[in-house]
Structures are given as C-alpha cells and as structure tokens.
Amino acid sequence: MKLPVTSYGESGTPVVVMHGLFGSGRNWMTAARRLADRHRVFAFDLRNHGTSPHVETMSYPEMAEDVRETIDSLGVGPVALVGHSMGGKTAMLTALQHPSVVERLVVVDAAPVAYPPAFVEYAQAMRAADLSAVQRRADVDAQLVEAVPTPGTRAFLLQNLILDEAGARWRPNLPVIEAALPAISGWPAEAEGLVYDGPTLFIYGGKSDYVQQDHRTTIAAYFPQVQYAEVPEAGHWVHAERLDDFLAALTPFIG
C-alpha cells in the first residue's frame, strides 16, 4: 500500500521520517523543516494513522512493505530511513527485509525487542469517548483525563481528533490499532536471522527505558554497524522534547 507523503526541501540526499503509535507525519514537521535546507525530507503517514487509508490488518511486515512500496513509488531510494518508536521498529524491519531501499538507518528510542503491551488504555479511552455532542477539543480532553492523566499525552492524542462542520471523529483506525497492539509492542518473527549491514544509528532518550544496555547484543546481531547517541535530557519523544540535541546527533550521521 502506498502511503501518504508530505515532502520538505527541493534538493539534497533523501530522508524518510516515520512517526510512532497514535502519531502522524505531522509530528516530524518542525524537524523536517530544519533538515530541509540540506535534504529532501519525506514524512510518511503509516497505515491506519494520519491520512492513510483504514485497512483491516496492521503488522510490521505489512508496514515494512508499505514503506518499501512508497519509497519505490517516489523514485528516491535508497534513503536515510528514520523512525521513532513504532516507526523505528518499522524502519528496522524495512532495512532488514528490503535493504536495497535503505542507504542508512536511524532508529529513535526503540529496540528490536518485545516490550510489555502498552497504550491499551489510551486506545480504549479514545474509543469510549462520546463524540456525539462535542463542540471543542476541551470536551474530549475532559473525557480522557481519568485514563490519560498526563496533559502532554492527552494533547498528543487529541491531535488525532477531527472537529469540523461534520462533527467530531477520530482520524486513526482505532479498532484495528487496538487489536494490533500486542504485535506492535512485540518484535516480528520474520526478522529472525536477518542482518542489515548498512550504517545504523540508534538515538535514545536518557530519561527513557526503551533502549537499554542489555538490548545492545541483540541490536548488534541485526545491525553490526550500529552506533549510539544518547540525548540525556530527553524521554521517549526525543525529537519533540530536545529537538536541537536530537538534530545534533542526527545530522552528522545523515550528511
């Protein structure tokens, strides 16, 4: 499936950026604009997110194939492939299964391991919200408070709310995403035995636990040319929380 793409920049080496769970290509807008003076940047909306079509299945092999097909359709490969969280796992599997389209790989705060299932309560709270009489985003924000107590997280989730003359509705395919959460939290069996030999950079937040020291043996088995860059003051959303520090780690690697 070809994915919706937002492009930035007119010339330079191609860079594809991919968002995490409940995100969209718009999450990368500020970083992409900063990169666009030296690169052509393409922000993808992964399946069932953003403006992508709603489809009934959502696995990492399917998402990796979507990415390969979209890069091929743009005619810009091989690219520097950058992905955060779920997008980072998608980027890893794309590099492992379709290395011809990946010139170098950047993984932001994710590892090729299975994590405990997360965000189930977010999906359930979003689906349970009564949107029938919503007039303002604050109306939905109030409904999410119990399940999502952190204001910043609610604000992030509310970026997925469409509120127009037709009423209020969620942009992502929430039922399919919720059903796919165990697979999204995991790591696909299809990756076993594969190796990506290209240059690889893992950027991680010093205040996040998604990339741990004991993951490094597993990471190196898949990505033997791996380098690491820690952004000490960042949590999981590295590029949103500490953009300058994130770009300082990223730009020397992608050229």
Distance between the termini: 30 Å
CATH class of the largest domain: Alpha Beta
Summarize the biggest pleated sheet: 7 strands, mixed
Spatial extent as radius of gyration: 18 Å
What is the domain total for the residues? 2
Report the CATH architecture of the largest domain.
3-Layer(aba) Sandwich
Number of distinct beta strands: 9
Coarse morphology: globular
Query: What is the subunit organization of this protein?
Result: single chain
Looking at this structure, what is the CATH superfamily of the largest domain? Answer: Alpha/Beta hydrolase fold, catalytic domain
Round the mean pLDDT to the nearest integer and report it.
96
Give unreliable regions as ranges.
none
As laid out across the biggest beta sheet, the strand order is 1-3-2-4-5-8-9
Overall structural class, as computed from helix and strand content, comes to alpha/beta
CATH fold-level topology of the largest domain: Rossmann fold
Q: Which helices and strands, and how do they pair?
A:
Layout (H helix, E strand, L loop, with lengths): L4 E4 L4 E6 L10 H7 L3 E6 L15 H15 L4 E6 L1 H12 L4 E7 L11 H9 L8 H8 L6 H8 L2 E4 L2 E4 L3 H12 L14 E6 L10 H7 L3 E6 L6 H4 L1 H12 L1
Parallel strand pairs: 2-3, 2-4, 4-5, 5-8, 8-9
Antiparallel strand pairs: 1-3, 6-7
Helix pairs in contact: 2-3, 4-7
